[in-house]
Design goal:
Layout (H helix, E strand, L loop, with lengths): L4 H9 L32 E7 L2 H8 L5 E9 L8 H5 L6 E8 L6 H12 L7 E2 L2 E2 L5 E4 L3 H17 L9 E2 L5 E3 L7 H4 L4 H17 L12
Parallel strand pairs: 6-7
Antiparallel strand pairs: 1-3, 1-6, 2-3, 2-8, 4-5
Helix pairs in contact: 2-4, 2-7, 4-5, 4-7
Length: about 230
């Protein structure tokens, strides 16, 4: 589903509007290290939240991971009143664009999701920006929803820092979980519904391709829609 022309034009025209299309250097793909601290989450579906810049790409990558049951784009950190795309895109709310991921830990563990996230989704050395997008609403954050996830996330961030793979200081951190608000309907499954959108082609399709290349064992060819 394409965005209405008037809406798309107005969004692109905003100085801090979401998911920009300027010509910036390509995002780095890093073969992130395998986690030393393995997640032990038991049985049953689990949920975690990841913020990694424009939620279209975060959702696109996780929707191609085996074991992920849903990946919902939304807003985290602010109030219900602030959970509006135009408000969040102004950079003046407390929200970041985020994705709530529901997954089966028997198929894909939380530590494996972290590895994927930092390998092909988010650059952990950037603050308040990712790819071509600028503003605090594009900050990369880990939002664990359980004690086990928090422990695993802390251990993995420490492992990443020690690995020196990124060449610059790791600034992505862990933030306390607050209410997650699902984004507007037209943002859900955006990459799958708009495969020829310029932003998707330029920034998000390469991430999905990198997932397939680096981690073929967990890559799912089909897009898991919500």
């Amino acid at each position: 589903m394409k965005l209405p022309h008037v809406l798309l034009t107005s969004l692109i025209g905003l100085s801090l509007a979401g998911c920009q299309q300027q010509a910036f250097a390509s995002e780095r793909i890093v073969n992130a290290p395998k986690a030393e601290r393995i997640a032990k989450e038991g049985t049953g579906l689990k949920t975690a939240i990841f913020a990694g810049g424009c939620f279209w790409g975060v959702e696109a990558v996780f929707s191609h991971v085996k074991g992920v049951q849903s990946a919902v784009s939304g807003y985290h950190g602010g109030t219900k009143r602030q959970a509006d795309y135009k408000l969040v895109s102004s950079g003046l709310t407390n929200h970041v664009e985020a994705v709530k991921v529901v997954y089966d830990p028997k198929v894909i563990r939380y530590d494996q999701l972290l590895r994927i996230f930092f390998a092909v989704v988010a650059d952990p050395t950037l603050k308040n920006r990712q790819g071509p997008d600028r503003g605090p609403h594009y900050n990369a954050e880990l939002i664990p929803l359980s004690k086990e996830q928090r422990t695993v996330a802390s251990a993995y961030l420490a492992q990443m820092k020690a690995s020196k793979k990124w060449g610059r200081p790791i600034v992505t951190g862990i933030v306390p979980a607050k209410t997650f608000y699902a984004a507007e309907t037209y943002h859900q499954d955006f990459a799958d519904k708009n495969p020829r959108h310029p932003y998707i082609l330029r920034w998000d399709k390469p991430k999905v391709s990198a997932l397939k290349r680096l981690y073929p064992g967990v890559y799912r060819a089909s897009f898991k829609r919500n």
